Amino acid sequence: MFIDLPLDELRRYRPPLPEPPGFDAFWHRTLTETHAHDLDARFTAVDAGMALLDTYDVEFAGFGGHRIRGWFLAPRGAEGPLPCVVQYLGYGGGRAHPHDWPLWPCAGLATLVMDARGQSGPDRPGDTPDPVGADHPGVPGKMTQGLLAPDTYYYRRLYTDAVRAVEAAGAHPMVDPARIVVSGRSQGGACALAVAGLVPEVAAALIDVPFLTDIRRALEVTEDGPYGELARYFAGERLDIDRALATLDHVDGLNFAARAQTPALFSTGLRDAVTPPSTGFAAYHHYAGPKEQQVWRFNGHEGGGGHQRTEQIRFVRELFG
């Protein structure tokens, strides 16, 4: 069923930015501290059984210098430098297998898939631990890990890893650093949106049903998916709510959208109870750069699926020719 505002109201929905004091200084300090660590991007060729693709096991230094894993794939025999799509992952899963990521190499681009630290799943296994422990009790999942301070919050680390993934992609000799696109769905969309606001050099952003945007509104209208972790935490830790919300403001995608200038393609499903459509529309409306939005009226958190991939290929081809 439709779980949010009517479409005509969604097209007008533009809430105030939840920008905390010192937002820019916080992220400037975070990235400055991260850049003190050598990126040390390593690409090790592997035989993944795909005769038409070159495949590499990737490692680079993310937040805190922690080693982040990934995959890098490119069309075999292609003459570089190529555009590259940096792919971020949805909640609860890892980089999976190289054969899960042939879309962009088949379209003639390279792709770097960033593993999500500390996340794995039965169908999407991950290979990157998160060496930073929580500083307080939480509920299962990542939403409450380090939640009581911006410096310790899990998504500070994940967003920083996402920035470094762009740098790692640009370090590969097959990649044109001026033609890097960031892409992701749900949590991956949150990462793509954050990077679009933090790294002005990226060429484009593909942001599907983004998570962690307009967070305070999301908590009012849904308990599905990862937002339910926050609801369960707040039900018990009643005295921590305001402190936790202040932390969440530091990772809210609306604040990154207002700073992003790169062209972007968004998608929203009107029956999405995991990332309610009003939160996706809010990110789209605040996005400062050139933008398009695909609205899927009878779809939920899967968004446009293969139809959205078709739109993304079209968008990238128009961008790069």
From TrEMBL:
InterPro entries: AB_hydrolase_fold, AXE1_dom, CE7. Residues 116-141 are annotated as: Disordered. Gene3D superfamilies: alpha/beta hydrolase. This is Acetylxylan esterase. Signal peptide: none annotated. Coiled coil: none annotated. GO terms for biological process: polysaccharide metabolic process. Residues 2-318 form the Acetyl xylan esterase domain. Pfam families: AXE1. Substrate binds at residue 91.
